[in-house]
Amino acid sequence: xxxxxxxxxxxxxxxxxxxxxxxxxxxxxxxxxxxxxxxxxxxxxxxxxxxxxxxxxxxxxxxxxxxxxxxxxxxxxxxxxxxxxxxxxxxxxxxxxxxxxxxxxxxxxxxxxxxxxxxxxxxxxxxxxxxxxxxxxxxxxxxxxxxxxxxxxxxxxxxxxxxxxxxxxxxxxxxxxxxxxxxxxxxxxxxxxxxxxxxxxxxxxxxxxxxxxxxxxxxxxxxxxxxxxxxxxxxxxxxxxxxxxxxxxxxxxxxxxxxxxxxxxxxxxxxxxxxxxxxxxxxxxxxxxxxxxxxxxxxxxxxxxxxxxxxxxxxxxxxxxxxxxxxxxxxxxxxxxxxxxxxxxxxxxxxxxxxxxxxxxxxxxxxxxxxxxxxxxxxxxxxxxxxxxxxxxxxxxxxxxxxxxxxxxxxxxxxxxxxxxxxxxxxxxxxxxxxxxxxxxxxxxxxxxxxxxxxxxxxxxxxxxxxxxxxxxxxxxxxxxxxxxxxxxxxxxxxxxxxxxxxxxxxxxxxxxxxxxxxxxxxxxxxxxxxxxxxxxxxxxxxxxx
Length: 546
Fold this sequence. Notes:
Blueprint: H1 3-16, E1 24-29, H2 51-55, E2 67-69, E3 73-76, E4 92-99, E5 102-103, E6 105-110, E7 117-127, E8 147-157, E9 163-166, E10 181-184, E11 187-188, E12 196-201, E13 214-221, E14 230-237, E15 242-254, E16 262-267, E17 277-285, E18 292-300, E19 306-315, E20 318-322, E21 329-337, E22 342-349, E23 363-367, E24 373-375, E25 385-389, E26 399-405, E27 408-410, E28 416-423, E29 431-436, E30 444-446, E31 451-454, E32 460-467, E33 478-484, E34 494-495, E35 500-505, H3 523-545
Parallel strand pairs: 26-34, 27-35
Antiparallel strand pairs: 1-15, 2-6, 3-4, 4-5, 4-15, 6-14, 7-13, 7-15, 8-12, 8-14, 9-10, 10-11, 16-17, 17-22, 18-21, 18-24, 19-22, 20-21, 23-25, 26-28, 28-32, 29-31, 29-33, 30-32, 33-35
């Protein structure tokens, strides 16, 4: 589909949608349907007609009257070479030239219909003229400059006035020409402030068939115009021995001025966790006038961000997007920028292998305007698109410890030690802790298994060690050990106090003293004791007699 026909398809959108809801298309001419379709010579030669006779009143959208100085006319392209900017087999463009004192110009006028701005766009190119319209092959071609100049002037035409074009003051051959003027009732009009010179890219191929097309857009402030006033647009070739071709002239009236294409980008979330994905959105604004060919976008994703499994989610920019899984580069070539703009959405990911880059500090993603973002040869806004994305630093894992209370019990009924597995901080999800439970022993039982779960929002979970009651003496004490094992995921927890021990004591041994025999004395010792007792008795008896 040609650029012109895409403009026609977008007219309902221009009228009803978005930032350009007040846009009215006044004129859209792709120069592909001249009144005279035969060409006296193909391959870049001009026809023997004129813009005014071929295109007056024949705009495919709207109608306008061409005026001209000299023999500005249509160019008949070689169909096989497709040098028309639309890339189609439609072989016509507008053309005008300067050859010494012969300076060609064209003009056309539009009523802004009460809107504060008239906006316009046209494709421009320079071609090697050969013997085009009597202009000999210039001996100084291509010269040292990379572009040649065209005058583009704007004039206010009061309501009810009739205007004509007049050549500018004559300059010496080889010197820049003066642009053509608008004359009303014999008075040369003053151009509006938006008037000036346009640089047109010089044909780099030295071929009379090839054209390095540049899309040029403009805006004219008409807010001070009265009802019925018109804007006249006048183009003039300035450089000597020069032929300029133009195509796809679109004129709109609008509430806002035409803006150069610009690009912005954003991530669906400011940060994502390790291994997660988000949406990258690239928005390109159109100029509100007409679609523009040649949109290219290169987005070099910042390390470690790569394309995710979702790939290209949506694309309204046309062309061919290339963004493979795991790639750190996105490319769009041969796109078409609609007047209302376009959007490219893709899935990107912070890969699981990039844990070292998860620090919470964002990485910056930049698309450089003019290098990574171009729209043919159209001048863009010059503002880089930038967005940031971060991967938060992993949370500090809690420290998990174990303790058992009491740490000593006896082998009697009801003797239980409660073991608490405690985390230093609660977690948002259940925390599974690996344990080394006590070894199996007949002296106790345990509810402590290989794992225990600390519920989300809690800091502890319990298990128990219970003594096996018995009355057997001599079976001694035993120790039950409970320890915390390494986590299955190193980021789950660290090990604090571990292990914990519980001693199961024997309480069945006899507690008391053995009776001791009364000591005896020998025979002579017994006689001696007896004698002493007898003497003591006699002594007491005598005292009584006295």
